[in-house]
Amino acid sequence: MVKLCGICENERAILKRPKTAQQICKTCFYHVFETEIHHTIIDNNLFKRGDRVAIAASGGKDSTVLAHIMKTLNERHNYGLDLSLLSVDEGITGYRDDSLETVKRNQQQYELPLKIVSYQELYNWSMDDIVKEVGLKNNCTFCGVFRRQALDRGAVMLGVDHIVTGHNADDIAETVLMNILRGDVARLQRCTEIVTAGESMIRRSKPFKYTYEKEIVMYAYFKKLDYFSTECIYSPNAYRGHARIFLKDLEAVRPSAIIGKQFP
Ligand code: SF4
Question: Full-prediction pTM beyond 0.85?
């Protein structure tokens, strides 16, 4: 028997929402996915009209969906934002050079200006140089700090007020776990904030704070978005990987573990 969509009760249900376990059609999935992010933006006053906003773009699924959603919602709801793409080239051969090609295609597809800042240009070294020196050890801890700073410096060059990143609910849950395991109480609170300000006072926000990673993947898949799916070659030993595996195990037992909230 054909199962009808649990929202419109008209179309055939073709997917089960990971966030709510509701079986729905593709059209209703697009609608709820986009509307929930719109509400996150509005309820948290993320932007004001006229803001110049850089979308941190890596070419991966999260930032590609973020670019697509920010452009769609900005036009649909007339936010009045001046959007651009901002990418960091860490200098990782066989990974970032390929993913930046995806960002360049996204720039054409979404008709947004693009600025790329590189570690080579900012610091006079690349991650390839660093890994050659120190080997495959704690690379993300080091790279992450410089990546954050590079985004800030790129934002200053672009003259933007605000950076949006594609951090989703799963990323935040992983960070919470990592901070608990490290006993880092100060970061534990900060890591769940939807808006933060770096040293440069440029606001950073996470419109996907309440969005499940699986739904981002589904959205990218059904919309046939152009994204790069290879993992960074220096990430396999990252501490985050252990938190991710643990979280996936918890999620298999209780799907609401990621946000810790029961949905109807
Ligand atoms: Fe840098 Fe780690 Fe990200 Fe690779 S995965 S770009 S090493 S922070």
Answer: yes
139 CA to centre of ligand 1 in angstroms: 7
**Domains in the chain with CATH codes:** 48-260 (3.40.50.620)
**Å from CA of 85 to ligand 1 middle:** 19
Q: How far is the CA of 235 from the centre of ligand 1 (A)?
A: 6
Q: Which residues line ligand 1 (CB under 6 A)?
A: 90, 127, 139-140, 143-144, 147, 232, 234-235
pLDDT tens string 92-142: 999 999 999 999 999 999 999 999 999 999 999 999 999 999 988 888 888
Tell me the C-alpha distance between 56 and 68, whole Å: 12
Q: Which letter does DSSP use for residue 107 in this model?
A: H
Strands (DSSP E) found in the chain: 15-16, 23-24, 52-56, 82-89, 114-118, 162-164, 195-197, 203-205
Residue 57 has a pLDDT of: 97
253 versus 93: the higher-pLDDT residue is 93
Q: Which two tokens stand for residue 192?
A: 């769940």
